[in-house]
TrEMBL record:
It comes from Cyprinus carpio. The keyword Repeat applies. This is Protein VAC14 homolog. SUPFAM superfamilies: ARM repeat. Residues 308-342 are annotated as: Disordered.
Length: 722
């Protein structure tokens, strides 16, 4: 540089210092320039101010000498500091030479350019917005700078330019700039300022919010037109962050479009998306639009989860590896094209299953979660167990207690969805290897030891259950025992639905086996009464009733014996089971033993209910068999036995009237001739030891009697005996 050239109003000392290789001397020169410019500002001498800036730009910042360029940059920053709020009048002259230095080959000089622009922008604040285009373009170049110091400096400058100013005028200016950018494809940079736009969307000014919505709408249109060039992954979390009241609808709308356009690209962010979406599903009609958008997001996101997500990472890499010739397989190619042709060239994404389960579990535990949100959570869990059973069973032990607790929910619809999840857990083949952390499923079958019956195998037609099934049955009965109100209000409903979801025989088989070992005899009796009522009255149990009516196979006999031994906890239920299975002689033998039992008011009420059931459509076949007195003498005797137990009541009159319709009472006499044909067809059943069953009944009733006596001894008000 020619040091003899006239640089006035800059003094020779300032010029010499600006050209010095030492930073300290250039800094001293900058302080002198700042002092000089302040004097010009005080004098309102804009001509001299522009002259100083022009000298610093052309003679220094754009000089061929590197030290001169460094001096020019620090000098321009000093001018901006001296100008203060008036720097906006000279921004173009201040910014342009600095931005030119962004392209310098010297990394130190690029860093000084960042530093200079940072100081200029810091002073000018919102006044830099009209120059947004060039600033943004310059920053985009430095963002990928190989020098870490330059990159760090650009990040500081980028944060300074972020749109967090709450000033309405500033917001308006920002929007105006974004609306009038002709020469930059802002869609490429949308991740950089989308957060700021959503901040502006929460502005207190209605007009600013309206304009911002228009701008966001235009961006969304461009995204739909050019989805392949959109950085969806970088913007997903921004939408999650801004899913609160004021801008929630816009956020949900964008999120819905992102999921539909980006497809599986958003799966790694699914836990955050669900955190934002799930609460919206319980909104009322006042936020109907937000609720509908959230519902669409939820539905679209759920569809993205496929069985491919159940494959381990190593297996996934093996499957996705190219063939030996370097080309993908035909199957992979077809799958990629079908799912998302736009993103077929992008790397495979991983489902954030752990994060999703954590979010779902948190919503289940939260007592304030709305009903529709709880239903959505349970739908998600069911979907995940269907699509990714192997990975989901790793979470089953932690989810299981809350799923059981959800059975106490106030909503029938929630309970139904909860039962679907539990049923899938109990029946999924994946549970055979993951339950209890063992691959041995030898204990997973509900195989029952049934004394009194010569077979112990389950019916071949019964679908196999995993070990969670038996665990589920045990915990369900335990919950009924601890929450008697749940058993009373929802017990029948829950058991009927499980019979539809899993298989009635499995449910009754396992519950009977568990109740056989129940120590709380009063609960066992109540539970047997509940199961017996369901068995005799529910449409869901029609097939099981038909199976028990005809004890011609070993499997049906095994089921009868299993139920019988637990039904012995409740004498009247045991008799009704014998009526259902047409074991009339055994029913008569049981009723004969009722004289030795403690007959309470509750006992007589159960007999009353049985009489009502005999008159119901369930026992139509039994009533018709009364016409064949010769072959059903023990049926008539058993019914007369019930009649003799009843006091003079409406049930007594009902049964008495029914028995009076039996033709030829004389034929009720039992034929004892050993050569005569067997009258009760059940006596010919080779698979059941009825004498052993009677002995078991006696033992169970003895236990009940002992417990009642112990209870009566501890109570001042023992049960009233009739």
């Amino acid at each position: 540089m020619n040091t003899e050239k006239d640089f006035s109003p800059l003094t020779p000392n300032i010029v010499r210092a600006l050209n010095d290789k030492l930073y300290e001397k250039r800094k001293v020169a900058a302080l002198e320039i700042e002092k000089l410019v302040r004097e010009f500002v005080a004098q309102n001498n804009s001509a001299q101010i522009r002259h100083v800036i022009q000298i610093l730009a052309t003679e220094f910042a754009l000089s061929q000498h590197p030290h001169s360029r460094k001096g020019g940059l620090i000098g321009l920053a000093a001018c901006s500091i001296a100008l203060g709020k008036d720097s906006g009048l000279y921004l173009k002259e201040l910014i342009d030479p600095v931005l030119t230095c962004f392209n310098d080959s010297d990394s130190r000089l690029r860093y000084y350019a960042c530093e200079a622009l940072y100081n200029i922008v810091k002073v000018a604040r919102g006044a830099v917005l009209p120059h947004f285009n060039v600033l943004f373009d310059g920053l985009s170049k430095l963002a990928a700078d190989p020098d870490p110091n330059v990159k760090s400096g650009s990040e500081l400058l980028d944060r300074l330019l972020k749109f967090y100013n709450n000033n309405g005028n500033c917001h308006y200016a920002i929007i105006h700039v974004l609306e009038s950018v002709p020469d930059i494809n802002l869609l490429d940079y949308l991740p950089e300022f989308l957060d700021g736009l959503f901040q502006i969307l929460g502005d207190s000014s209605k007009e600013i919010r309206r304009i911002c919505e228009v701008v966001l709408g235009e961006f969304l249109k461009e995204i739909k037109k050019n989805p392949s060039s959109v950085k969806f992954a970088e913007m997903a979390n921004i939408l999650v962050i801004h899913s609160y009241d004021l801008i929630q609808l816009t956020s949900m709308t964008w999120m819905r479009e992102f999921i539909q356009l980006a497809g599986r690209v958003v799966l790694p962010y699914s836990s955050g998306i669900l955190t934002a979406v799930l609460p919206c599903l319980s909104y009322d009609d006042r936020k109907k639009s937000t609720k509908e958008a959230a519902s669409a997001c939820n539905h679209s996101l759920m569809k993205l989860v496929t069985p491919e997500d159940d494959v381990d990472d190593e297996e996934s890499q093996t499957k996705s590896s190219p063939q030996s010739d370097g080309s993908p397989s035909k199957k992979e190619s077809e799958s990629s094209t079908t799912e998302a042709p736009i993103f077929s060239d992008r790397p495979a994404v991983t489902l954030d299953l752990d994060g999703i389960v954590q979010v779902l579990d948190r919503h289940l535990h939260d007592s304030s979660t709305g009903m529709m949100t709880r239903i959505a959570v349970l739908k998600w869990l069911y979907h995940l167990y269907i699509k990714t059973p192997r990975k989901m069973f790793k979470h089953t032990d932690s989810l299981f207690p809350m799923l059981l607790k959800t059975l106490s929910d106030e909503s029938d619809e929630v309970i139904l969805k909860d039962l679907e999840v539990l049923a899938e857990i109990a029946s999924s083949p994946a549970g055979q290897t993951d339950a209890s952390g063992s691959c041995d499923n030898s204990d997973s079958k509900t195989e029952l030891h049934i004394p009194g019956c010569k077979v112990t195998d389950l019916s071949p037609s019964t679908p196999s259950m995993n070990s969670y099934f038996y665990k589920f049955m045990i915990n369900l009965l335990k919950r009924f025992s601890l929450e008697r109100k749940l058993l009373e209000m929802r017990g029948a409903f829950i058991i009927r639905q499980l019979c539809l979801l899993l298989h009635a025989e499995n449910i009754f088989h396992s519950m009977a086996d568990i109740l056989l070992k129940e120590e709380d005899l009063k609960f066992a009796s109540t539970m047997v009464q509940t199961l017996n009522t369901i068995l005799l009255t529910s449409a869901e149990l029609f097939q099981l009733r038909n199976q028990l009516k005809d004890l011609r196979t070993q499997e049906s006999c095994a089921l009868f014996c299993c139920l019988y031994r637990s039904w012995c906890h409740n004498p009247v239920a045991t008799v009704s089971l014998c009526f259902l299975t047409q074991n009339y002689r055994h029913a008569y033998d049981l009723i004969q033993k009722f004289g030795d039992l403690e007959v309470t008011v509750d006992f007589l009420m159960e007999v009353d209910k049985l009489v009502q059931l005999i008159e119901s459509p369930i026992f139509t076949y039994l009533r018709l068999q009364l016409l064949d007195v010769e072959h059903n003498p023990y049926l008539i005797k058993a019914l007369y036995g019930l009649l003799m137990l009843l006091p003079q009541s409406q049930a007594f009159q009902l049964l008495s009237h029914r028995l009076s319709c039996v033709p030829n009472p004389e034929l009720m006499r039992t034929v004892e001739d050993p050569k005569a044909p067997v009258k009760d067809k059940r006596l010919a059943q080779p698979h059941i030891d009825y004498s052993e069953l009677l002995q078991h009944f006696d033992r169970v009733q003895s236990k009940h009697l002992e417990v009642r006596h112990q209870r009566a001894g501890r109570s001042e008000h023992p049960d009233r005996k009739l």
